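ARCHIVE RECORD
Type: protein–small molecule complex
Small molecule: nicotinamide-adenine-dinucleotide
Source of inputs: curated submission
Record status: active
Notes field left blank by submitter.
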Amino acid sequence: MEGKRENDHSTVRIEVSAAAETGGPYPVLIRSGLLGELASLLRAHVRVHRWAIITDDIVEGLHGRTVADGIAGLGPAPLLISFPHGEASKTRELWGRLTDLMLESGIGRDGGVVALGGGVVGDLAGFVAATYMRGIPCVQVPTTTLAMIDAAVGGKTGVDLPAGKNLVGVMRQPRLVIMDPAVLGSLPDDVHRAGLAEAVKHAAVADEDYLAWIEREVDVILRRDPRALQALIRRSVEIKASLVAEDTLETGPRASLNFGHTIAHALEHVSGFAIAHGYAVAIGMVAEARLGEALGIAMAGTAARIERLLTRLGLPVHIPPATALAEVIAATRADKKSRAAHVRYALLERPGRAARSPDGQWTFAVSPAEALAAITGEASS
Ligand SMILES: NC(=O)c1ccc[n+]([C@@H]2O[C@H](COP(=O)([O-])OP(=O)(O)OC[C@H]3O[C@@H](n4cnc5c(N)ncnc54)[C@H](O)[C@@H]3O)[C@@H](O)[C@H]2O)c1
Ligand SMILES: [Zn+2]
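STRUCTURE (tokenized, with ligand):
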């Protein structure tokens, strides 16, 4: 798994192409130690008058001061703002408060935002940057496995509403993404594992070699060996970048990234968001791989292989019993991506390849009754 390199012999550089109206292309840089080189990276890639660093309280405690001091020489002292960690902060109210704080501090049209943290920070700070004075540059500096593997690339920003997750937002690409796998060392185990579910998803929909590599390297990945993490993040970013390129509206292959997610979103909803997203995705992928097999779309054994790997990664794979599953399937219709009685699922053809329907679509319409029967293994009437 070789990538392009920049400056020295170990920084991986991946170019993400994106439609001009969402902000155009941008580079993703990956290497242990890059956080300490933020000032020179910002100077080389994004010129702004003054930076606002937006982060959460936990990441502020770990890296806030170092990052703020590190980039202090670039211009006026950066504004460091933090908010309480957790999904509960991803709200319109906090979007408003952060925007007000930036205004009060005199950040102008020539300012920029560094989003330093997990996916919650990335989505919220990205939304602040996208809307502040009609949009100022944002540099994503993800600090969780999930944010590096998934959230920091693709340009989706936004906040949650009482009615559901991510219901308000815009598609706006960052100008630069900086990933330092060394910062993942301080993550709680369950947070690290939750992010790995998305790596399995990338492998499952797009690259059987990558899937086999994860299967071989489970132990070093769980131990967070820096080289293994760099290789994992690189391959996932390459896959996500190739799928999101020029497919802002998810009408093409980007939709295959929703594998596992129709069930996952419903599980999260039914549990009142008590279950972590990555855990819900793990269960969702097993359920949807089974669905694919039952519908004759996925090769036999697909679900078993995904389930085995997720189990070895310490992720949950148990599909709820039939009555609870019926409630989950009913909740899939609340998924904002569904339009009619049938719900669209991104399915696999086999491990390492997403399925495409005969009419060229990357998702399949399945009725709730059919999905329930297929996943529980009961014949549909
Ligand atoms: N924009 C996208 O395309 C996209 C894709 C996937 C997920 N998301 C969003 O991402 C969010 C989930 O992201 P997440 O899982 O990173 O959650 P998160 O941002 O809440 O981070 C998880 C926890 O880890 C802590 N943390 C962060 N970095 C740390 C570090 N280096 N060491 C120790 N602790 C650290 C955080 O403070 C938090 O408590 C959700 O809101 C989801 O909707 C967005
Ligand atoms: Zn996801």
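CURATOR ANNOTATION: The chain has a mean pLDDT of 92.
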